[in-house]
Design a protein that fits this description.
758 residues; mainly beta; five-stranded antiparallel sheet; 6% helix; 31% strand
Length: 758
């Protein structure tokens, strides 16, 4: 078979695009006629389908099915649909397809039927006053000037001007035609013509110099947009331009001189205002004023601040003024903005004004120059004695006024005050002690008052120190004393005294024998021991057995001031024993048994009957006893008895027979018996109480020792020491066996003890 080539489409069946103008008013309107040459005329049936036929919008297009003519049945709007694509069909009378379907495209041609529209009715922009204008170089600008194109952000300065804002509009017509070619212009901006607009972009910029917010702060421009490149349809909008303030105007005083007055002694009050004017925007930093007092106030009595609402200067007094010292001030005040002036602002000197302030005189209260007044008065000052003159002064030297005085507070009713002279006198005697004295001081208040209308007053404090006077003699306590002792023995009495006077006329006291009785020194002496005074009696002869009469003594007090001390006399009786059950005279307190101290004090209390043995020991060794006590930190028997005590007796008491007789120490008392063997030590803590109670019972039942000085040997301590017993534990119970004469043989270190007990 022969290969069949491509089918050739007949020219009559291929339909080119059809153009039709929008808003066509002649309806119906023949658009095109389609044909098919497959059959004779009348034997073909034509049809079309698509939008505008059998699809929305319906009924716009139609076709004659026998002739193939296509008609427009309605007005077209390009802004709604700018083209239609249809399909055309050709069938025979039997419905058989004669031609393949073909495309039918209908293009809607635009007409200038839409005006431009601005995107908003009012455009707003801002630019600083004094912004630079643009230069003239080429066209493209509207508004009466030929300006260069400004392509900067709104409000930004440039070499070609300062752009403020851009206005823009839209057009619904075909953007590829002049129907949508827009041009912008300024229809109205006032007579100044300060702004211009780019006709193509709609950008508004400054056109002339001289933008001054103080002259005109807001510009209202009417702008227009036109299509057809400015010759077609037009529309308008408003462009509002606000000028932003800069500090190009310094503040100025409304006048050169201001006058005001203020009362004296007023502080923290406003005196008056100085008024200024600033052309810059109210409330802005360029408008706020700052004031300074340049001259006329060396003491800093005035201050000036800015009223934030009115921008005026408020002058106030910060220190009290005194009319009598200075009655008027002349201040020089300057003003300037808080922000500095712009460099473009015209130079001008700083604004100055003179403020005259008059100080008005008012009545002032009296003043006590010395407050409080402190004086001293002797105790017991007689009534009517003038003690001081306490007056005030009146600051009102330009006014003649009289001051009067009165006692405002006198709790003891002790004072009398002259109402005119201010002299203070005693009204009655005031003595110690008194409930109205505070630490020896008496407080009174004095009132001073002037005779102005209304009167003013002041209060002064009068502090009176009541000086102590030595007007009381000391009293011995107890008032009488008794010394008991054996014939030929002395005695000791502890002295004490009291005094009603306060320091320095009271304690401490000094005791001495009466100088009117020099014979007393043979038997009596006063010594100080451990901070206390002891009265000692020494007999003329050891065999003296007579009763001494009452002996007077004198106790003067050292004077702290020219006032003479007050002495007192005290009788002391010396009785020969036996004393009728009188309490034992206090002795010198025993020193604790520290080994180094026992060498001196303990030896002074040994038995009298051991004197011969002690003297023998001292004759064998003439060394000082204190120098021989070497190993005082050892716990043995003595310096020559280091091995006299066997410590095993404590560690192992069971190894030693309780019936065994322990050896005697060489330094044991002659009259003392052999100590008992050691008692059994407690085996547990619960037996300690029994152990102590047994020892206490032995001490209480021993008739050879007093209860307060019990000779109790708790354990055996060895023997063989050449030293005498030093403890007073084995001392005699009474004074009859005591003999202290040997103390005078012990050297100068024991001289004090020898004087007291030898």
């Amino acid at each position: 078979r022969q290969h069949e080539g491509p089918r050739r489409v007949k020219r009559a069946w291929v339909i080119p695009p059809i153009s039709v103008s929008e808003n066509h008013k002649r309806i119906p309107h023949l658009l095109v006629q389609i044909k098919s040459d497959k059959q004779q005329p009348g034997g073909v049936i034509y049809s079309i389908k698509g939008p505008g036929v059998d699809e929305e919008p319906l009924g716009i297009f139609s076709i004659d099915k026998f002739s193939g003519k296509v008609f427009l049945n309605a007005m077209l709007d390009r802004e709604e649909n700018d083209r239609y694509r249809l399909r055309a069909f050709a069938l025979d009378l039997g419905g058989v397809t004669l031609e393949d379907p073909t495309d039918l495209e209908i293009i809607v041609v635009d007409q200038n039927d839409n005006r431009p529209l601005f995107r908003q009715d009012v455009f707003t922009g801002r630019v600083v006053e004094g912004a630079e204008p643009g230069g003239s170089s080429r066209g493209g600008w509207m508004g009466g000037l030929s300006q260069p194109l400004c392509q900067h952000p709104p409000g930004a300065p440039s070499a070609t001007g300062t752009c403020v804002m851009t206005v823009d509009a839209t057009d619904a017509d075909d953007p590829d035609t002049d129907n949508a070619a827009l041009r912008y212009s300024i229809l109205d901006q006032g007579a100044a013509g300060m702004f211009s607009i780019n006709a193509t972009t709609g950008e508004i910029c400054t056109a002339r110099p001289g933008l001054d917010r103080e002259t005109m702060g807001v510009y209202n421009l009417t702008v227009q947009a036109a299509d057809m490149s400015g010759d077609g349809l037009t529309t308008t909008a408003m462009a509002v331009i606000y000028l932003e303030d800069i500090n190009d105007n310094p503040p100025e005083f409304t006048k050169e001189e201001f006058s005001m007055e203020v009362e004296e002694q007023a502080a923290g009050v406003d005196v008056g205002k100085v008024f200024v004017h600033d052309k810059d925007l109210a409330g802005s930093p360029s408008w706020l004023a700052k004031f300074t007092i340049l001259e006329g106030d060396p003491e800093g009595a005035f201050a000036i601040r800015t009223d934030p609402h009115t921008n005026d200067g408020v002058i106030s007094v910060v220190k009290p003024l005194d009319h009598e010292v200075r009655d008027r001030f002349e201040l020089t005040v300057s003003v300037q903005n808080e922000w500095p002036l712009e460099p473009s602002a015209p130079a001008s000197p700083r604004a100055l004004a003179t403020v005259r302030v008059r100080v008005r005189d008012v009545n002032e209260a009296p003043v006590f120059r010395e407050n409080p007044r402190r004086i001293s008065v002797l105790e017991g000052t007689p009534p009517g004695t003038p003690i001081t003159t306490y007056t005030a002064s009146d600051p009102d030297t330009h006014q003649i006024q009289t001051l009067t005085y009165a006692l405002l507070y006198d709790p003891a009713d002790w004072l009398r005050l002259d109402p005119h002279a201010g002299t203070v006198r005693t009204k009655r005697e005031l003595l110690h002690p008194s409930a109205f004295l505070q630490g020896g001081w008496y407080i009174a208040l004095v009132l001073a008052r002037d005779d102005a209308e209304p009167p003013l007053s002041a209060t002064g404090t009068l502090s009176i120190e009541i000086l102590e006077v030595n007007d009381h003699a000391p009293q011995l306590q107890p008032p009488a004393g008794v010394l008991c002792g054996r014939p030929g023995r002395g005695g000791t009495l502890l002295l004490g005294a009291t005094d009603d006077d306060r320091p320095p006329h009271g304690a401490p006291f000094h005791f001495q024998l009466s100088p009117q009785h020099p014979q007393l020194a043979r038997n009596w002496s006063i010594a100080r021991f451990n901070g206390e005074d002891l009265l000692n009696y020494f007999p003329l002869r050891p065999s003296h057995t007579v009763t001494s009469p009452a002996v007077p003594t004198s106790i003067p007090i050292p004077p702290p001031s020219p006032t003479a001390p007050q002495p007192s006399h005290h009788p002391v009786s010396r009785r020969v024993p036996p004393c009728p059950h009188s309490p034992r005279v206090p002795r010198v307190p025993r020193v604790p048994a520290v080994p180094a101290v026992l060498a001196g004090l303990g030896a002074a209390r040994v038995r009298g009957r051991r004197r011969a043995l002690r003297k023998g020991l001292l004759q064998r060794s003439r060394d000082d006893m204190r120098d021989n006590i070497l190993n005082y930190d050892e716990q043995g028997g003595g310096e020559e008895d280091q091995d006299a005590y066997d410590i095993n007796q404590l560690r192992h008491p069971e190894l030693f027979s309780p019936r065994a007789k322990p050896p005697l120490r060489r330094d044991a008392p002659l009259s003392s018996g052999t100590p008992l063997a050691p008692r059994k030590l407690p085996s547990s803590p619960s037996d300690i109480e029994d152990f102590i109670n047994e020892g206490l019972e032995v001490a209480d039942s021993d008739p050879s020792v007093p209860p307060y000085d019990t000779a109790l040997i708790y354990d055996y301590e060895g023997s063989g020491s050449v030293a005498s017993p030093l403890s007073s534990i084995v001392s005699s119970l009474t004074d009859e066996d005591q003999d202290y004469d040997y103390l005078s043989e012990w050297g100068p270190r024991f001289r004090r003890l020898a004087d007291l007990y030898g």
